Amino acid sequence: MDKYEQVIELAKRRGFLWNSFELYGGTAGFYDYGPLGSTLKRRIEQIWRETYVVQEGYMEIEAPTIGIEDVFVASGHVGGFSDPLCECKNCGEAFRADHLVEKYVAIPDTLSDQELDRVITENSVKCPECEGELGETYEFNLMFKTNIGPGTGRQGYMRPETAQGMFVDFLRLARFYREKLPFGATQIGKSYRNEISPRQGVIRLREFTQAEAEIFIDPNDKKHPDFGRFADTVINLYSDEAQDREEIEQMSLGEAVEKGTIAHEFLAYQIGLTNHFLQRVGIAADKLRFRQHMKDEMAHYAIDCWDAEIETDRFGWVEVVGIADRTDYDLKAHANVSKTELSIYREYSEPKMVTQFVVKPNMGKLGPLFKGKAKAVADALKALSQAELEQENITVTVDGEEVTVPGDIVEFAEETVKISGENIIPHVIEPSYGIDRIFYSTMEHAFEEEMVAGKEETEEEEARIVMRLKKEVAPVQVAILPLLTREELIGPARTIETGLKQKGLLVSYDDSGTIGRRYRRNDEIGTPYSITIDYETIEDNTVTIRDRDSMKQVRAPVDGIADLIHELIYMGRDFESAGKAL
């Protein structure tokens, strides 16, 4: 078994992950999180909230997981959110065409359908399932459609990302933050993509959890007030140029901004924050890199975009976070479709005298001529240049229809006016996290199988599986283990359990099997500490504390045990100082 199979086998056996709908044979792209998996996932999400909501101050909102069609027309998902699909002519199995040619093309997701067909033909690519001939590639929209209301209802879609809810709520958010840039909003929730052929476990799901922040900043000032926090942080950068050399660079974020490798401080700060978060939840630093989108894959509206990628045993480098400067694209797109201005008013420190070209349509004459369209005609006239307005008859387009306006009912002139501020459309910095991928990567990086000494000196070494999860994300942080199921030991054990729970720690009580077997069970699920209650506890009110990673043990008093474990988990206290070594 490779490491992926080992991790998934343990995950299923110990209650981290289960195949969804297993009773009915299951279906690809869906997983259930079991008792331990659900807790581990919530711990990761809680640390994300602590990072972005508590520390950064980007408050959380919750928008519906179903959106009306207009939202996704504006976002571009209705017209362009698709993957290239090809089907086997023999067995009918569907595949992503770009995945089938990965070994032949460096960046296959930039190819057109026709180019993919050419690569498939030139390299005689066959169906991975039956070696049959593949059909022509076509685009398959990944959104799940639904109807809102009875009958045909109103067209809706399950959201393919959480971001759009924050863009749609922009004006409300701007008022909440008193229109002071920068400000941001966060959201953690389910998103849905009807993946063509999800064959990578929790790496590619049809229902998945995203954690996203949309940070609205001044387009003319992209410095970060706290950039010094990460300026000296050295990270693994795989820039556009470095990809040409196939060489990962180690560079400080300050140097990367100075050289122009990263577009600006605000984006670099978000890369630093992402790096900090991922290592905090247990991603190995040497298996984490930040890859810049190359020029031919960069979204046309983005100034710069980087993906946090984690190295995995089976799937190689997997994207888990996207960090992009999306400019004002999203707000302009929603403003255009909704016919609502999405901007904020920025007051100048001192008023300015500005010469403006002012257009003044005569509404008293426009009204009778154009009735209900008069305002739209006036707005169209205000957008014209002086040369266009000097015509005897002026032509404008309103709702796709050409309208002719007599030139003598429109006045225009240059005027010098005092301006106290201006309306600006903020730019958006978006860090978008795939929680399920981070969950799996955390488990894989924590998984270890090692040989340890047997219980007796004469016994041979035995294999030990241990999940070296970070203490604050572990689904069980401390196990309570009475040596025997005797009332005189159960009583003190339950008292200690209650005290630890009151301290906010995640506690399990386990009295089944030998103490050695119970240690191994807790090693497998990543429990950092185990507390054993024995007959010595009754005599001197002390217990044995065992450390998961070193397997060392100390003897410590019961009094203050909850504070002691809390310090070991959250305050970095050294285990050697926790009690008398055994």
Give the helix/strand layout.
Blueprint: H1 3-13, E1 17-19, E2 31-33, H2 35-55, E3 59-60, E4 66-68, H3 69-75, H4 77-80, E5 82-87, E6 94-96, H5 97-100, H6 113-122, E7 138-141, E8 145-148, E9 154-158, H7 163-168, H8 170-176, E10 183-192, E11 207-217, E12 234-238, H9 240-245, E13 249-252, H10 253-259, H11 265-281, E14 288-292, E15 304-312, E16 316-325, H12 329-338, E17 344-361, H13 363-370, H14 374-382, H15 386-389, E18 393-398, E19 401-406, E20 410-424, E21 427-434, H16 435-446, E22 447-452, E23 462-467, E24 478-482, H17 487-502, E25 507-509, H18 515-525, E26 529-533, H19 535-540, E27 542-547, E28 553-557, H20 561-570, E29 580-581
Parallel strand pairs: 3-10, 12-14, 24-25, 24-26
Antiparallel strand pairs: 1-2, 4-9, 5-6, 5-7, 8-9, 10-11, 11-21, 12-13, 14-15, 15-16, 16-21, 17-20, 18-19, 22-23, 26-27, 27-28, 28-29
Helix pairs in contact: 2-16, 3-12, 10-11, 13-14, 17-20
| Overall form | globular
Overall strand count? 29
The secondary structure category is alpha+beta
Rounded Rg: 30 Å
Helical content stands at 25-40%
Determine the strand fraction and express it as a percent band. 25-35%
Distance between the termini: 37 Å
Describe the strand arrangement of the main beta sheet, using strand numbers. 3-10-11-21-16-15-14-12-13
Q: Report the biggest beta sheet as strand number plus sense, adding barrel if it closes.
A: 9 strands, mixed
